[in-house]
Amino acid sequence: MSLQAKLDAFKADFEAGKPPYNVPASVIEVMHRATAELISSGAAENTLKAGDQAPSFILNDPEGNPVSSADLLSKGPLVISFYRGVWCPYCNMELQALEAALPSFRELGASLIAISPQTAVNSRKSVRQNHLDFPILSDVHNDVAAAFGLRFALPDYLVDLYTSLKNDLPSFNGDNSWTLPMPGRFVIGQDGLILYAEVNPDYTRRPDPEDMPPALRKATQASAN
Questions:
Q1: What's the pLDDT at 221?
Q2: How much is the average pLDDT of 99-104?
Q3: Which of 112, 124, 125, 150 is deepest in the core (most CB within 10 A)?
Q4: Domain Thioredoxin, which positions (predicted)?
């Protein structure tokens, strides 16, 4: 089953109010409204695209060690997944799918990292719960996400909903800004050029990891020439 098929099956159960979430229809309506407004805002049109130069960055892993994009790119192409946090079931399903695809990425000489605004403690929880063999880097204030064009502020009514559900983003992220990244996946060549970019303002839609190898093979061929 593809990643999107798994996400669609989860979404159907979630929106039907099934356990363990038992979410009422009023909550679903608010979430739909926020997603529709983010889509209509055109924010996704302002994100970095294939052919753009990727911004360089240094972010800490869950143990506090700095990880440099330049260092990673010196070894081969780079796959980056921006995701919302350990509290998001769609994100966790995506991380698990990326973990399953990790051997194929490594066969093509690529590194894989995930980037989230959450604190190191929550990133360690993500790694542990999803059995990950790749690092999750902490993007404090979503600054790197902003450099890729992904950062957006939650509308006040969605902040109110998250607060009522005890989905306290300031605690998860150690940041009071109530911002998140739109989920995004990028493949970056060793020259820093973006070879693949997929961003969706609908957080329930994610690209399949099997979409990455063609871009990675292109990156490998480019570095060999």
A1: 74
A2: 97
A3: 150
A4: 48-221
